[in-house]
């Protein structure tokens, strides 16, 4: 058994997936509602809007849909903490962090991923800089910031 009932996955509309009475308009998440066994020709899914969908599988290309992370991991401030690390989960995590909490920075290990909000944010004030001074990058209670990366670089140069 490869995938089982209850797993969440991403369905990619860019692959031209069409249902009998609807078209998937964008990449969306779906829940697997029937166990998938090796050799099956399709997945039985329930989309976010509760629509049932049968997702055809390309057996020649051996391509399975990307799995979705558990809800507890969605919005994580370090992408390396995700169980499944691939393009759909990275983009989904960044989207959730930005839209739900207006967080423009996310770690990916020692790298810092930034989203341009196209507006001024009050995150570059002097008091914010002082909060990050002397702290370790990736500190559990500190949101990802460019100041943390700068502090880590300074500590590495000084040692």
Automatic annotation (TrEMBL):
Keywords assigned by UniProt, alphabetized: Actin-binding, ATP-binding, Motor protein, Myosin, Nucleotide-binding
Q: Name one Pfam family in it.
A: Myosin_head
Tell me the ranges covered by the Myosin motor domain, including all copies: 74-159
Q: Which InterPro entries match?
A: Kinesin_motor_dom_sf, Myosin_head_motor_dom-like, P-loop_NTPase
Tell me one GO molecular function of this protein.
actin filament binding
Q: What is the lineage of its organism?
A: Eukaryota, Metazoa, Chordata, Craniata, Vertebrata
Q: Which family, according to the similarity comment?
A: Belongs to the TRAFAC class myosin-kinesin ATPase superfamily. Myosin family.
A GO biological process of this protein is: actin filament organization
* Organism expressing this protein natively: Otus sunia (Oriental scops-owl)
What PANTHER family does UniProt report for this protein, alphabetically? MYOSIN, UNCONVENTIONAL MYOSIN-VB
Q: What is this protein called?
A: Myosin motor domain-containing protein
GO CC terms for this protein? cytoplasm; membrane; myosin complex
- Transport as UniProt keyword: no
In the UniProt record, does the keyword Transport occur?
A: no
